[in-house]
Amino acid sequence: MSHPLAAPLLSGHRRALARAITLTESTRPDHEQEAQALLAEVLPHAGRSIRVGLTGVPGVGKSTLIEALGLHLADAGHRVAVLAVDPSSARTGGSIMGDKTRMPRLTVHPGAYIRPSPSGGTLGGVARRTRETITLCEAAGYDVLLVETVGVGQSETQVAAMTDLFVLLTLPNAGDELQGIKRGIMELADLCVVNKADTDPRAATRAQTELTAALRLLTPHGALWRPRALRTSATTGAGIAELWEAVGEYAATVNLAEKRRAQTAVWFDELLREAAWRAFQTGLDRERLRELRGEVLAGTRTPVQGVRALLSPVAG
């Protein structure tokens, strides 16, 4: 039996999309079961989009750039969804809730949709809900998804693992900034963008050159795509069209279907490990666990022996 939200969602009704996303965010078991049924029904209609992840240091003008890019695409006929990932949101409402106020023109554009992703207290919760929101937005006809990470650290890895390409935004003084950018985040970047280039054109050009050199060193030999550095000014619109052209070049170079299959396989394995761990904990002998932990801490068993004894009591 078809879910009542499926037809209006597939027709692109924003209210149906909002209700569907809210359903997937619910922690009630009956809602989760209903949400998974809905997702399974609309899944064949998803996947027809380009997914772009974006991150950047504080003050880089990320929201301004996302709005400028979103307006550029929406005015050109694309349907754009902006999804914000912030693991702190469940605690404070986070900066993601401010994105709608920081993107006032994009918020009211009929071709755009902005949605935060509450974490449910864990970054893993963000990843799951954002992946499912991506599916729902694609099924609703949004062909460009801009996934913004507001947090730092693991959130970048999570967003890169669910998008087609990852964009790192920096400021014109990136020469000094490069020392503070984690190598791991640089390695995730398919594009680096020096934003606010109009504030100091010479510094922006220098930063672009330095980023290009850094990306060259980090890119594996024989890679299909060679990450590059660009310059933009979100306030003037300079470089926004070139940024989207670079995204198009990337999509034409990389096998996105193969990349998404690999991402889905990793996600499935992660969910399987989580489910297996929960099932294991449910049937765990707590007293035996405390006993073995005490032996390990006392030095009478090695940690490996302790784990083996817990998994195979008879052998222990």
From TrEMBL:
Its EC number is 2.7.-.-. Keywords: Kinase, Transferase. CDD domains: MMAA-like (cd03114). Residues 48-215 form the AAA+ ATPase domain. GO terms for molecular function: GTP binding; GTPase activity; kinase activity. It comes from the Bacteria. It is an enzyme of class 2 (transferase). GO terms for cellular component: cytoplasm. The keyword Methyltransferase does not apply. It holds the Pfam family MeaB. Belongs to the SIMIBI class G3E GTPase family. ArgK/MeaB subfamily. NCBIfam families: lao, PRK09435.1. This is LAO/AO transport system kinase. It comes from Deinococcus budaensis.
